[in-house]
Amino acid sequence: MEFTEVISNRRSIRKYSDKPVTKEEIEQIIELTRFSPSWKNTQTSRFYVILNPELKNQIAEQGTCDFSKNKLNIQSAPALVVQTTVNGISGYEKDGSFTTSKGTHWQSFDAGIACQTFCLTACDMGLGTLIMGIFDEEKIRKILNIPESESISALIAVGYAEEKPEMPRRKAVNDIMQIF
Q: Domains, the chain, ranges and CATH?
């Protein structure tokens, strides 16, 4: 796919086919995701890949804050990726002070860049994704034994789309841009 097609065709997928996602496919996505830019090239994003259906269902049952839509999204997807970010690096100087007035926000910014790169790469490979932000961080941390030095940034469902949703309405360029 051409890059502009990948951007305009990527959708949030909520219904997946039964076709499995392989470890090799996820590795290929992460291989390209690792080229995402980050604060001073700190590369703080980490990816916990869940292909085991029982473990994936445990996260769906215990780690979705009783939000039934995310529970179903996780259960229907062949793979789940838990994206984390190493704490205390993005936006900081070596002495521990903040470099800018944005403070800890750079950590989320870096995570977002990596998450989008992950999803666009998956789309280019014919896979669908859904980024989820409603989750119980501590329960998922415990299930996957994620160290306290990392924060969970997002859950990403991954699989082959059973159906492709229509493009939601987008704002016009003139509504989101100002030229001086």
A: 3-176 (3.40.109.10)
Query: What are the contacts of 29-34 at 24+ separation with CB within 8 A?
Result: 29/118, 29/121, 29/122, 29/125, 29/127, 29/158, 30/118, 32/117, 32/121, 33/114, 33/117, 33/118, 33/121
Q: How confident is the model at residue 155 (pLDDT cuts 50, 70, 90)?
A: very high
Beta strands per DSSP E along the chain: 45-50, 79-86, 128-132, 150-159
* pTM of structure: 0.95
**Are 16 and 77 spatial neighbours (Cβ–Cβ below 8 Å)?**
yes
61-96 burial, b at 16+ Cβ within 10 Å, e below that, comes to eebbeeeeebbebbbbbbbbbbbbbbeebbbbeeee
